[in-house]
Write a structure and sequence with these properties.
The protein is mainly alpha-helical. The protein folds into two domains: 112 residues, Rna Polymerase Sigma Factor, Chain: A, CATH 1.10.1740.10; 62 residues, Arc Repressor Mutant, subunit A (Orthogonal Bundle), CATH 1.10.10.10. The protein contains eleven helices and no strands. The chain starts with a helix and ends with a helix. 23% of the residues are buried.
């Protein structure tokens, strides 16, 4: 009973915070930012496969969030809506970047700086393998396997056929399995 009461209280507080943000309250927006920046950044990082790009994309998410808060109607949980907004903004941000994949994939071809190389070495095995995936396969894999989107949703977000989303996911799984077995 105590947990449910705490959850209801937290939901009321969040609703009030969102209402204040929609009215233009900057300090309420700062609280919302502090509450959700970790989740937003984590999704941006999974989609971009680059810490610097993820930081930029997360910043873009919150800039646009400030502008889009009026469009949040409360029909879904705020975190669900924010997750969708984050995925869409990050994917749009990725599309705007030139040669962003080369910055991550090949140190020889793209001339990665030492910090980027060090960042890649800090990742665990699966994360390193995900970085190697081709762009579309990586985005589909992250959205489907990590974030839990359905292929129908992914097809809309990435502007591709549902069958293409499934094919890219299958391709990503096969490549990851092959690379993982090669490392063992």
């Amino acid at each position: 009973m105590l947990i449910k009461a705490e959850q209801r209280f937290a939901a009321v507080q969040e609703d009030q915070l969102i209402s204040l943000v929609q009215q233009g309250d900057r300090s309420a927006f700062e609280q919302l930012y502090n509450q959700y920046i970790s989740r937003v950044y984590a999704l941006c990082l999974r989609l971009t496969a680059d810490k610097s790009t993820a930081e930029d994309a997360a910043q873009e998410v919150f800039v646009q969030l400030w502008q889009k808060m009026a469009s949040f109607d409360g029909k879904s949980k705020f975190s669900t809506w924010l997750h969708s907004v984050t995925a869409n903004i990050t994917i749009s941000y990725i599309r705007k970047q030139k040669n962003w994949l080369q910055k991550v994939v090949s140190t020889e071809d793209a001339g990665m700086d030492e910090q980027a190389i060090e960042d890649v070495h800090d990742l665990n095995g699966l994360d390193k393998l995900i970085l190697r995936l081709p762009e579309r396969a990586r985005m589909v894999f992250v959205l489907y396997a990590v974030e839990g989107y359905r292929h129908e949703e992914i097809s809309t977000i990435l502007n591709m056929a549902v069958g293409s989303s499934k094919a890219q996911y299958h391709r990503a799984r096969n490549l990851l399995k092959e690379w993982y077995e090669d490392e063992q």
